[in-house]
Design brief:
The complex is a heterodimer of chains A (about 250) and B (about 850). Chain A has helices spanning about 10-15, 60-70, 90-100, 120-130, 135-145, 160-175, 190-210, 220-225; strands at about 20-30, 35-45, 50-55, 75-80, 85, 105, 180-185, 210-215, 230-235, 235-240. Chain A is of the alpha/beta class and about 250 residues long. Chain B is built from 27 helices and 20 strands.
Chain lengths: ~250, ~850
């Protein structure tokens, strides 16, 4: 019997030495009568606290990879480990629990709930986990302060600019102290200046909170914030190397 | 272009959204079905009556008629030699209870053993031939005519009746004549199609003389059918007027039908108005379906607009989708309505029989007019309710295709304007109500009910937001974050949710209003029965309930009852049905002396004693409240009535409360009645027992007095009261059935709207799932949403229902039926209605909640 929810994370580095570990992961999709391999036997490890950028063209398999890491999708074969948890063995509720406790996700389209205020959006993952507002709201306020959004905490999403929405989304991804933040083209919908700011913020808060960040992007500028770049093509790893210091973006926090 | 839009876009959307299109179709179908079924049932019940008139009158184009007491048969002999009068046919008729197995036992309850109600027509077979029509008429061949002449027990029955009871020629049937079981022999079967339908085929034809003999109508006729040369109709009418005795009149066969229609008009109109409610609620369904489609397809509309589709074409496109839903829904509704009409027919016919006159409707008349109207109504209302969203869709700018991200309603709801308009409609409803009462226009009551419902519907968005504000913290405290998300979404999608709130409001409002009105009415009737039914024992010959004025109790028996030990007084009753103005009214004769001493009629503005003694002294009459209201007569007015002793004028000396029939009736002292109608006949007696005497003992003694071959029904006070209330409840049963359907339609609205809302916010639910909401949490969110939707809808429904219940009780009921009802409000009605609606809404939310739980987190990742 699989557990319904995941117990609080024991820091995974001690257990298996990596925040994320993929072992020969394959993901196939049916396309008409054929089957397409979106991810074709990828194996890799991401150590605890690393900022990794996964790059590649459209259709290279990077979004599928992200979905597999988020437990939103399950691999056709192979193993996906988040800390000490192998995702393909978890039930839907356990996956939900994992997302709620260990993962933070930042989306291209922000995905803030229009019915909630900025502060409520940030607090939502913890509240869904059963925490009380009086405990969560101070944390949310602190995070909003950190991402420079405390002045808009009562605003509704549709009144925010793209950059503001993404800052809020970053705060939401961090509220429940995840070990891993997944970011899916977080700058895809932003102008370049705002994009730079958001990427810098993501790198900075990631480091400050000691979380592992996996960023999926097709933008070289965005990838420049990362410590390591993994390039995919046709579902395979084409390149996996550390980002050299001169390629990395200057840190402009805001 | 439009054709392409419809085939490629509109029709495909409708079919792709199969489930929801089906819900909407079902809503429209139910609305139309209820309307059609009620109209068909009503029409069929009345047609069964007019068929009876037609089948019997044949080609007759003029009639001589009296009141239900009949007139002297010597009138017939006076008609000879009038130029232009081509043929005459005398008829005497009676309604009789019968058992069809030829046995004569009374059984436990004669009403059950003698279960068939037959219309007995006594005719002169030799006189009928000129009146015969191909498809109808009571054609009696010479051989049968001879049998009629030879055997006074010989009868002809319809083949329908024969088939139903498997009767062969020579079979014996038993009819109750004045409470006497009397045997008759079937000698002939009547095959004409129209006779099979009239009275549901429950027609018996006998010779004139046998009928007079068997049913105590010696020397009397009820009618003479006349065949008059159309060119000389006026001359014949003039000649007849000169020679006819008082108490008879010249009339047209259809006139009786018209009088009957007038009599049951209010009843039919009220049922029809109720049937409209389901249709009204289904309008919300169409409105919502089209609005949701507009919202969901906003981008597509933008693309079409950027491709050169005009605003008008967009409007036409959405209207054609509504047209499709309206046409298909209405067609299903017509079929469903026909099926439902069969169920409703029994109930409607029974109510008409109990309250107004005997109809035995077993055959459904599929009136094309009803179908046509029902279809037009369904389609028209569908188009009307789609118009506003279609126009809104056409305002979509082509640039909308460029927008991404959060979906927000295209235009914020003009909340202030809607609420303002809603409140002004409510004020208008109040003004129309005042006008209705002062100008006495019953129809105004429906207009103000409509304004009220419409006004409350427009207030619904504001009310939804207000409730959300108050409920949100409460629900969140109890149900946590997912509950709060659910309630919050109601506010966000207020343009959609308030339509469902309005639909729920209408059905709860009507439910409450009806329950309060019927409850108040029932209580009023109960009190009235307790006050007025004072006799301890009511005795009548078995079968009087159908044969009414054609029944009589032996006078010698009544004399013996008066002498029974323990009997304080005996009141006697006889009545007759008389045409009065454009209706048929009932005139009763009772002992005013006994009534003054023992009875407890409640008079308006006077005491019973004053009114009754004044009536005795001035040869006056007392009238019921509803009779006075209908004919605008008051205490002190003069009333003119056709009697066998000529047209008489009576002073009205009292108006009393009565709830037995909305047509009302009038009563006079027995002596006056007997003098004017020239009969000494008692249909029924009320026995007052001395204090302390055992009523059951008196009852046993009384029944022992009756001759062996006389079946008497002696009902104690309590049983009579219970029966009156049972009839009352039965009358209103159909009302609740109609109401149930309206609620069903509104619940369909909850299901379809929630489903659409969930599909629409698939991405948001995906986000929720992605940030860690469990399936159970998502389900809970949707269930809270549907429950709160039900709660808000029914809370507004309570307010609306309260207003409507006043309107129904004091305006509509009063204007249509003229009844004073004591308004009684029981809080349970509100609690039960709200509880029921919340539960129904939560149940309606289960499907959408499951659907929501299947949304996967991946939807959050989806690029639009």
């Amino acid at each position: 019997m699989l557990p319904d929810a995941v117990s609080p994370p024991a820091r995974s580095a001690e257990d298996c030495g990596a925040a994320v570990r993929l072992v020969n992961v394959v993901k196939e999709f049916p396309l008409g009568e054929q089957r397409v391999r979106a991810v074709d036997g990828i194996s890799l490890e991401v150590p605890d606290g690393q900022f990794v950028a996964v790059v590649g063209r459209s259709g290279s398999g990077k979004s599928t990879l992200l979905n597999l890491l988020a437990g939103i999708d399950v691999p056709s074969s192979g193993e996906v480990w988040i800390g000490d948890r192998e995702l393909s063995r978890l039930s839907d509720d356990a996956l939900t629990g994992l997302r709620r406790e260990r993962l933070g996700i930042v989306y291209q389209f922000f995905n803030l709930l229009p019915t909630l205020s900025v502060r409520e959006n940030v607090a939502l993952p913890s509240l869904l986990g059963g925490a009380r507002e009086r405990d969560v709201f101070p944390q949310a306020d602190a995070l909003l302060e950190e991402v420079g959004m405390s002045h808009r905490r009562d605003a509704r999403p549709h009144t925010l600019s793209g950059g503001e929405m993404q800052r809020t989304a970053i705060a939401r991804a961090l509220i429940h102290r995840p070990t891993l933040v997944l970011a899916d083209e977080p700058t895809g919908n932003l102008d370049s200046r705002t994009a730079d700011q958001v990427m810098a913020l993501l790198g900075e808060v990631g480091r400050r909170h000691g979380v592992t960040v996996v960023l999926v992007t097709h933008s070289p500028e965005a990838a420049a914030v990362a410590e390591r770049v993994i390039e995919l093509r046709d579902g395979r790893v084409l390149r996996d190397e550390p980002m050299v210091a001169q390629d990395r973006m200057p840190e402009t926090a805001r | 272009m439009i054709d392409v839009l419809w085939r490629w876009v509109g029709a495909r959307h409708l079919f792709q959204e199969g489930g929801r299109s089906l819900l909407t179709l079902l809503g429209v179908a139910l609305g139309v079905a209820v309307f059609v079924s009620i109209r068909l049932a009503n029409h069929s019940a009345l047609s069964s009556f007019s068929d009876t008139v037609d089948a019997v009158a044949g080609k007759a184009n003029l009639q001589i008629a009296g009141d239900s007491g009949g007139f002297d048969e010597t009138v017939l002999s006076r008609l000879q030699g009038i130029p232009g009068l081509q043929a005459t046919a005398p008829v005497v008729q009676a309604y009789a209870r019968a058992r069809m197995d030829g046995k004569t036992e009374a059984g436990e309850d004669p009403r059950e053993t003698y279960s068939e109600t037959l219309l007995v027509l006594g005719i002169d077979p030799t006189a009928m031939q000129p009146f015969e029509r191909e498809e109808s008429s009571a054609r009696i061949d010479p051989a049968t005519a001879l049998q009629f002449a030879m055997d006074p027990t010989a009868v002809a029955i319809t083949s329908t009746l024969a088939r139903r009871h498997r009767l062969e020629r020579g079979a014996r049937i038993t009819m109750l004549a004045d409470g006497h079981p009397t045997l008759f022999t079937v000698v002939h079967f009547l095959d004409s199609p129209q006779l099979q339908q009239a009275m549901g085929g429950n027609i018996v034809i006998m010779s004139l003389a046998s009928t007079q003999q068997a049913f105590g109508r010696q020397g009397k006729l009820d009618r003479i059918d006349l065949l008059v040369d159309p060119a000389r109709k006026e001359a014949v009418t003039a000649a007849l007027t000169a020679l006819l005795p008082s108490g008879t009149r010249i009339t047209h066969p259809a006139a009786r039908t018209r009088q009957v229609e007038n009599m049951v008009e209010a009843f039919g109109l009220n049922l029809t108005a109720l049937a409209f409610i389901a249709l009204f609620v289904s309008m919300f369904l169409i409105f919502n379906a089209v609005s949701m489609a507009v919202l969901r397809r906003r981008k597509e509309i933008g693309i079409l607009r950027s491709l050169g589709v005009t605003r008008r074409q967009i409007i036409v496109q959405f209207l054609s989708e509504a047209l499709f839903l309206g046409v298909v829904g209405s067609i299903i509704g017509l079929l469903l309505g026909t099926v439902m009409a069969r169920g409703a027919l029994g109930s409607v016919a029974q109510t008409i029989s109990t309250l107004y006159l005997q109809v035995n409707a077993t055959h459904l008349y599929l009136d094309p007019g009803v179908y046509l109207f029902g279809f037009a109504l369904g389609v028209g209302m569908s188009l009307l309710s789609a118009l506003a969203p279609a126009i809104e869709a056409s305002q979509t700018p082509p640039s909308v295709t460029m927008r991404q991200g959060i979906q927000i309603e295209a235009q914020p709801l003009p909340l202030g304007r809607l609420t303002g308009l809603g409140l002004s409609l409510l004020v208008m409803a109040a003004l129309v109500t005042v006008w209705t009462v002062s100008a006495r226009r019953p129809f105004g009551g429906f207009v103000s009910a409509f304004l009220l419902l419409f006004g409350f519907s427009l207030v619904a968005p504001g009310f939804t937001l207000l409730c959300e504000r108050f409920l949100s913290p409460l629900v969140a405290a109890v149900g946590g974050i997912e509950a709060r998300l659910g309630v919050r979404y109601l506010r966000e999608a207020v343009a959609r949710t308030s339509v469902v709130v309005a639909a729920l409001m209408v059905s709860v409002g009507m439910l409450i209003a009806l329950t309060v009105m019927v409850g108040s009415f029932r209580k009023t009737v109960d009190i009235w029965i307790r006050q007025t039914i004072r006799g301890d024992l009511y005795v009548e010959p078995a079968g009087r309930d159908v044969s009414t004025s054609a029944s009589a109790m032996p006078e010698s028996l009544i004399a013996q009852v008066r002498k029974l030990p323990g009997v304080a007084a005996v009141d006697t009753y006889r009545g007759v049905e008389v045409p009065f103005r454009d209706r048929i009214t009932h005139v009763g004769g009772i002992d005013f002396d006994v009534q003054a001493r023992y009875g407890k009629l409640q008079f308006i503005g006077t005491t019973a004693e004053a009114s009754l003694t004044a009536a005795e002294r001035q040869a006056g009459v007392i009238i019921t409240e509803s009779f006075g209201f209908r004919h605008r007569l008051r205490n002190g007015d003069l009333l003119e009535l056709l009697t066998p002793s000529g047209t008489q004028r009576f002073p009205i000396t009292g108006v009393f409360y009565d709830y037995s029939t909305d047509g009302g009736y009038l009563m006079m002292d027995r002596a006056l009645f007997e003098r004017l109608w020239k009969v000494r006949r008692t249909e029924r007696i009320a026995v007052y027992v001395q204090p302390g005497v055992d009523v059951d003992r008196v009852r046993t003694q009384l029944l022992a007095l009756a001759p062996k071959d006389l079946l008497l029904i002696a009902t104690p006070n309590l049983a009579l009261r219970q029966r009156a209330l049972r009839i009352f409840d039965q009358t209103f049963r159909i009302t609740y059935a109609l109401q149930g359907i309206a609620i069903l339609v509104s619940v369909l609205g909850v299901i379809s709207t929630l489903t659409a809302l969930i599909l629409q916010r698939g991405r948001e639910i995906g986000v929720l799932r992605a940030v860690g909401a469990r399936r159970g949490q998502v389900q809970k969110m949707v269930l809270v949403e549907s429950g709160v939707l039900g709660l808000i809808g029914s809370l507004l429904g309570c307010l609306c229902g309260l207003a409507l219940s006043y309107l129904l009780t004091f305006v509509i009921n009063k204007q249509f039926f003229g009844w004073s009802i004591r308004y009684t409000l029981e809080p349970e009605v509100f609690i039960q209605s709200v509880g029921m609606m919340v539960v129904a809404s939560i149940l309606a939310g289960i499907g959408p909640a499951r659907l929501a739980a299947t949304r996967v987190a991946a939807e959050a990742m989806r690029v639009e």
